[in-house]
Amino acid sequence: MSTQARTSERRPPGDRAVANLIARYAELVDDGDFEGLGDLLADASFTGGGGTVSGREAIRRMFQDTLIVYADGTPRTQHVTTNLSVEVDEDAGTAASRSYVTVWQALPDLPLQAIAGGRYHDRFERRGGEWRFVDRRVRITLVGDVSRHLRPAARHG
User: Fold this and answer.
1) What is the structure's pLDDT at 9?
2) CB count, 10 Å around CB of 98?
3) Please, what's the b/e burial string for 99-109 (b: 16 or more CB within 10 A of its CB; e: otherwise)?
4) Phi and psi based region of residue 67 (left: phi greater than 0; alpha: psi -120 to 50; beta: remaining)
5) For residues 53 and 62, is the Cβ–Cβ distance under 8 A?
6) CA–CA distance, 85 with 120 (Å, rounded to integer)
7) What is the per-residue DSSP string for 84-147?
8) Is the entire prediction scored with pTM above 0.85?
9) What pLDDT, in 10s, does the model give residues 64-78?
10) Contact 40/28 with Cβ under 8 angstroms?
């Protein structure tokens, strides 16, 4: 078996690779790993409540300036992504996905609660054999108590 055939067998198909990227995003946010988010979204545009940002450093800075991080280095959240729909064009090396997101938060003086819910609309491209985000659009439609999650400027801006 050729090296190329073995390498491609080890890579997940596009739909699984895309799902893994979406899961990785949630892990990085919940870990407070803004450097990792910058790397994950380095080739992407990110559109949320504060507008659109692009590139590693701008995305890292946006998360750092938006989210409150606690003594354990995390925002004390869990982003749960559900209702995932992925459409892949393997020949073109492109993919799109839609999903729901629910953000949960708990602190010593804040019982576990859902603080936000909405949708992700994502686009991906395969570059150099690896799938990458090229666009993430976040639309939050349900908002609870985000006073312990978002910095004041992010809540009102």
Assistant:
1) 57
2) 14
3) bebebbbeeee
4) beta
5) yes
6) 10
7) EEEEEETTTTEEEEEEEEEEEEEETTEEEEEEEEEEEEEEEEEETTEEEEEEEEEEEEEE---T
8) yes
9) 999 999 999 999 999
10) yes
